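Case study 2.
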Amino acid sequence: MSLLDFPEDVVIRLICHLGLKDLLALGDSNSKLREIVYKSPEVWNNGDLLFPIADKSITDKFIQRIIPRITRHYGIMELKMIDLPLTWSGYLMIFDQFAHSVNRIEIKTTVDELIKLVHHLSIFAGNLAMLQQNNQIPITFRQYAFDDEDEYSAALADSNYLGQRTLHNLNDQFAYMKLDDPPFERLNDFRVVTNAKNSPDESMAMRQLELLASFLSGRPISINKQNIPGSPMPSARSSNKRTREHDQQTTSKHSRHYSPQQHHLPSYSSFA
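Prediction:
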């Protein structure tokens, strides 16, 4: 008896128990099974399935080849990307496929990769704001990841939209700006941990990411560093302290501007 002899709903329940490699192999074995595997949100709505923790095969090339096959259905609600060899481009391709439906994101990466991700998300967000102001069609995460990102930064630097503001200062402005159609329309939980916990570089990147996540989701988002595999749980006292600090912070907060050599966001004048 073939697997395809069973009703489709039974097949879906069965393949939900497969690991990623077996699931991909099954999808490659038959055109009908391929359709069931990639078009059924029930199969993929498991944060631990799509990106196994510390799996070195989950590269940008893997994301580019596999992710576009998976349904964009609103059933994909959680993304966990823990200790994966992804660059900012890989993350943006993932966001392109699932940003509209995901309500929770967990990332554990190096502080250098986080800084690069924040840098490119800032340019992407700036272009979204500029294009909206000019009533133009917004770019997508995928367009930014595949096109020449220098063109986007140059366009933003040369536009009347920015004036003399730097990218760093524009990040602070995101707290006062609103997108008509934010790409992360359902996001409400964003958790990030790096290998340089509580370092100045990490703290700066986290603050900038919090502003960006709030802007790109259209709602206040706090970057939570708890409950990610491989990261220590804070004590109740320290956790409460951070909660109080978050409650006391407002969207008008401003950070010091560091030079690019210190891994922080450069001004737009250095992009052109």
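The chain is about 45% helix and 5% strand.
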